[in-house]
Amino acid sequence: MPEYKAPLRDIKFVMNELLDSEQHYASLEGAEDATPDMVDAIIQEGAKFAEQVLSPLNAVGDQEGCTWSEEGVTTPKGFKEAYQQYVEGGWPSMTADPTYGGQGLPASIGIVISEMVGTANWSWGMYPGLSHGATNTVEAHGTEEQKQTYLTKLISGEWTGTMCLTEPHCGSDLGILRSKAEPNADGSYSITGTKIFISAGDHDMAENIVHIVLARLPGAPEGTKGISLFIVPKRLPNDDGSAGEMNAVSCGSLEHKMGIHGNATCVMNFDGAKGWLIGPENKGLNCMFTFMNTARIGTAIQGLGASELGFQGSLAYAKDRLAMRSLTGPKNPEGPADPIIVHPDVRRMLLTQKSVAEAARALVYLAAQQADVVHQGKTEEEKKAADAMLGFLTPIAKAFLTEIGFESANLGMQVFGGHGFITEWGMEQNVRDARIGMIYEGTTGIQALDLLGRKVLMTQGEALKQFTKLVHVFCKENADNEQLKEFLEPLQAMNKEWGDLTMKIGMNAMKNRDEVGAASVDYLMYSGYAVFAYLWARMAKVALDAMAEGTTEEAFYNSKVQTARFYFKRLLPRSKGHAEMMLAGADTLMDLSEDAFAF
């Protein structure tokens, strides 16, 4: 298994030099404690925890998996102890509301910790990751009593949380869920139903688990308009706030999965379990989006982590592994062969992973800064603009990063050749773990429909224009910079084409609504490559400016410029294929009759 090393230099580059986090935190309400020294200390300690505690447990979790018994689920060796260290370190409370025991730091700092935790050990990181979503949901929609009872425990890390959405017959169509909520005389509800694919649904790491559950009230409207949201704890709270007697909720079984074996993916049975309504009746799906959007950004981090972990493993291997000679003459003449990093195709794979990981980091951190403004912006105008930008970026981050992150994980395995297929190197585990990213929290297809249908076309392109305006301003401000010309010219052309393609799809959709679904995934992938192009152009500018001013880190900054050049020449051209495919028309997909698919 690759020994994870937090990429601190690149993390600081993105935070401090690309996104100017010091100025960003100064612009927020109530972020006075997020000083450069404080942020740096937090990241350093987070890196130690990820490297020294979580990374060694990654292969353990994969090999042992979780075990089920009637008493509950047991996590792999070391997971529970690592979680106790996590709680003792104060990590769960870092970005939470101080009113309920949190430290009140901006969410973007927590995202950096989530990246390091998730890359070191994705299965373990999902346990506290789900709790972040539960925390945000109770904070946004809970009553004061619910906040005092549940939010305080979630923030301290004493209790963890889950998201209970789908059922055996539902998949992503939550409008047909059947779980019921019958009112009780004491104001609580009796929740009955079965939920599947519940990550971290049961475990032995915390004393209680707070399930956030979708169910229907009696007489509720059909479809998504008749769904309500409930808090259903594994153990009922005592009057003093401690975890009391068991509720009628249990893990019926564990799913047998391709990857993320260290995380308990559960079938959860609610047999008249006591729960409490959170948010308005029949508005449960609206409230649950607070949780789902948290989870989607979290899943975007998985794409980043898969690429980073694959890159770290394959880079070390490529420098060490000897095989064949360089086509331009021996580079290791004293040895029997050259290290494989001298071969162009190995370089292609490594640079793909590097360029994806570094741009993915920039995108995730950019989205996290928008989330900061939504929660801590000083004006309503700022908050509204940031919310719109975050809404636009979220489906791109979730779907594009998991798609291209999975490709990077596969390339990490490919660099090893036959050894990549062998368990002990850890590359095949990274591939297996990463594969779920394109499925859970809304598949790539669902994210693509959200982007093109809801975020772009239903706003008459306003969400897209907000982003393309950023690109336009950047290009205009740097129009006289000759060193940036190789990046700005294709970026400007793509920025214009993005709008033109959107207009064409919108016009086609007015005649046939299937055109949206037919174009959506290619549109999302195109959008991802466009966003990466903007970020790589910005990173190249930062690097070029640093070298022009004089620096002792010339190699680091030169690497940034050369990686940007690789991205523009080798990966960005893929967008041309997506542009052609998104305009190919729905008839190429819909004309073939169902009976003619196979004979």
Automatic annotation (TrEMBL):
UniProt-listed Pfam families: Acyl-CoA_dh_1, Acyl-CoA_dh_C, Acyl-CoA_dh_M, Acyl-CoA_dh_N
Domain of life of the native organism: Bacteria
Domain Acyl-CoA dehydrogenase/oxidase C-terminal: 282-450
Presence of the UniProt keyword DNA repair in the record: no
Protein family (similarity comment): Belongs to the acyl-CoA dehydrogenase family.
PANTHER family: ACYL-COA DEHYDROGENASE, BROAD-SPECIFICITY LINEAR ACYL-COA DEHYDROGENASE FADE5
Primary role: Involved in the assimilation of dimethylsulphoniopropionate (DMSP), an important compound in the fixation of carbon in marine phytoplankton, by mediating the conversion of 3-(methylthio)propanoyl-CoA (MMPA-CoA) to 3-(methylthio)acryloyl-CoA (MTA-CoA).
Protein name as annotated: 3-methylmercaptopropionyl-CoA dehydrogenase
Organism: Marinobacter zhejiangensis
